[in-house]
Amino acid sequence: MQYKRILLKLSGEALMGDRNYGIDPKRLSEYAKEIKEVVDKGIEVAIVIGGGNIFRGVAGASNGMDRVQGDHMGMLATCINGLALQSALEAENVFTRLQTALEIKEVAEPYIRRKAIRHLEKGRVVIFGAGTGNPYFTTDTAAVLRAIEIDADAILKGTRVDGVYDADPEKFKNAVKFENITFKDVIEKGLKVMDMTAFTLSEENNLPIIIFDMNKQGNLLKLVSGEKVGTLINI
Ligand code: UDP
Hints:
Homohexamer. The protein is an alpha/beta fold and 235 residues long.
């Protein structure tokens, strides 16, 4: 196996499947099966899940809502997704813990780094909810932060595109995919991978990022097994 401990970042929108809002149970269950496959290989899996399928603070602010209030709503949305994912994983007989950066202690454990690492060592999937716990951040930043804290080998960002391209492949047919690219080149070429806060945090801490298509069956397992899937970003 290429990786021993991974941090998987899933966006909230990925959970929508073909819907415009909320959670598609079919998509959720497909993801749970993909995750189970890698857990069964002995890979330690931590997950950060977004909330964009339910609420984004920026969207609230553009409609006149207080930004911080909106971000609190966004963070709670990630907890809803975390609970849904936990349930889907448990349906596949995967042991899980949800840890949240905002305390909702009747529902989930508070985030405690040492506990999270212990759960991983015991083979439990740890889902991190509520982002960083702070407004004005994203779940991409939360994903990088947690990955560094738990000493993950890499951050695997599952998207609907199979890597980083020199132009948007959904708009430009001739767009060329990078197999590998450095952090520096991503910045110089102005490519969009993550928001800058997340991206530079990853670069500064030498944490490789892999962008891959999470909707293609078997991709996650291939990736952790060392097969060339998606685009690898490193120093
Ligand atoms: N959010 C936040 N702090 C964080 C992470 C998330 O305030 O550390 C809020 C923010 O409002 C954001 C929302 O939660 O818009 C959902 O997260 P994100 O947009 O990153 O989700 P994704 O795009 O991955 O679905």
